[in-house]
Amino acid sequence: MTPIIRFPWSRALPATLLIVAAALATGTLAVRAADDKAAAAPARPALTVTVTQPQSIALPLRITANGSIAAWQEASVGTEANGLRLATVLVNVGDVVKRGQVLATFAPDTMQADVAQVRAAVAEAEATLAEASANAQRARGLQATGALSEAAINQYLTAERTAKARLDAQRALAGMQQLRLKQTQVLAPDFGVISARSATVGAVLPAGQELFRMIRQGRLEWRAEVAANDMAKLKPGMVAQVTAGDAAPVRGTVRMVAPTVDPQTRNGIVYVDLPAPAGAARAGMFARGEFEIGNGSGLTLPQSAVLLRDGFSYVLRVGPDSKVAQVKVGVGRRLGDRIEITGGLDPTARVVAAGGGFLADGDLVRVVAAPAAASAAK
Question: Is residue 357, in this structure, part of any structural domain at all?
Fold first, then answer.
């Protein structure tokens, strides 16, 4: 009969297993208790925020447009003299000139010689007329005596009339030569600013050659391209805010609305007078602007309450459970620090006033009252 061998630790094994089982049971109970405690604890808010609601305020109605700045009117200043040498040029691009100011002069030597020649011809014609008048006077005195024939008397009278006509012709020629002498000075036709110069000292120019180009009265205008549907809303005298480049906006006035529309672009030109001087605006610059056509009401929020994400505008609406929900909204006009909400939001909704960029959809927030200073500012 085989003897039964008993190991010393076999007696302690049941007790050890009981101890381990008890420990595991105790740990499980502890974990469950911790989970129940964590579930019972309230969730902590992600951020403390203030809320605001859409407000209805009066907003200006505007029409936006783009266009170019151009001279109100340009004057081309040229030469009337033919074949004369340009002696002096007295102005340059950018100079402000007055009406009648001398801009350039041509060499007057040839014209002065012509004037002297014509004056001599006038003196000769005057002497001829004096002699013819004396002969005609004597002939009239002898007409009653019959000492001269009727043909001889008519001859003297005709000679007088011919001499008088020749004198008139020479005087007219003298006046024309005097005018040409004045044309050796190029004068400004109006007050304005020189915008271009092609005059070169020493050049011999034909009549009609342009020497300068000037902006009359220094006035500029904005030629805005406006959609055909909006042109009927614009009238002369309306105000426009024009911005050229990065310069400050300039206040202009609608002068005229074009009677036609471009059949290719379906846009019409609206001419806006700019003040003189027009700040940083220059002829040829591209400019954008807005026409003020009236006022209208709209729901607005502070710009800090509107978030731009993925190219769309959103607000964070706060629900009764203090959780935020991201809502896509449409935006429109801006006035100061407020922006118009055109759709997507109920007028009675509460939205996060600021700091929404730190929140995500579904976050829990703690709502506090807005500071008194901020409320007063609103």
Answer: yes
